[in-house]
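Q: Convert this sequence to structure tokens.
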Amino acid sequence: MIAIVTDSTAYLTHDEAVELGVVVVPMSYSLDGVSSLNEGCIENDDAAERQVAEHMNSVHTSQATLAGFVNTFTMLKRAGYETLCLTISSRLSGTYANAVLAAKELGGQHIEVVDSLTTCAGLYLLVREARARIRAGDRLSSVAKHLNKIKNRVRMFFSVDDMTPLRRSGRLGNVKMSISTVLNIRPLLELKDGSIVSAGIARGKLDQARKLCGFCEKATGTLIVNGFLADEAAAKLTAQLARGDRSIERRRVGPVLGAHLGAGCVGVAWIEP
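A:
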């Protein structure tokens, strides 16, 4: 039996985690340096997301911990499972390093840790791909090898209403720091090779949606539209992406990533054939 472990930025619901056989190791965030909350499976309401958006300047996030992975891997080993662990990109968080250390601490046997080089919708798609391979009868090492092979085919483009949270996070790669929304100009960004890079600019929300659609013009199969407190923009983007050779899903971004993206962030992800 193979269990899947991932961090909370895959933003699985409780029911999805159960159906896919996934154990979520949570990340955490604090507000005003006082309250520290673990982010596990995403809830049905957006109260936590709105709380984070209202305190954006005083939110701090923390990676999934070494202890969290050690405890999870130990529990699964005692229950007789082999473990496949998929984490947020190592270039965005120290979560992958903690998972690797935890596996080494337990001897590394029957545990495979994969750096997804993505997060959010991209991580969710890789989790689904992993479970499909496991259900098809693939061995642990074979599933890990397959994921390492296809993870560079995960494409993710997104746009934010305000660059300030991303600038503050220190997680910008090849992005012009002068980009702003002062003149209704919105940055278009890509998560590429595990880092956030510039993909252009859009002039207004209509152009933003048009260009996001343009990035995935040749994409077929399952496309995921993600948003952080951006229901209207996500709904419009979903409608514009609809096509006979596609299945469009909408998913929410939770507090930990939302704290670095800001309210109004919307994007699309898929795996290239």
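The domain at 2-151 is CATH 3.40.50.10170 (Rossmann fold).
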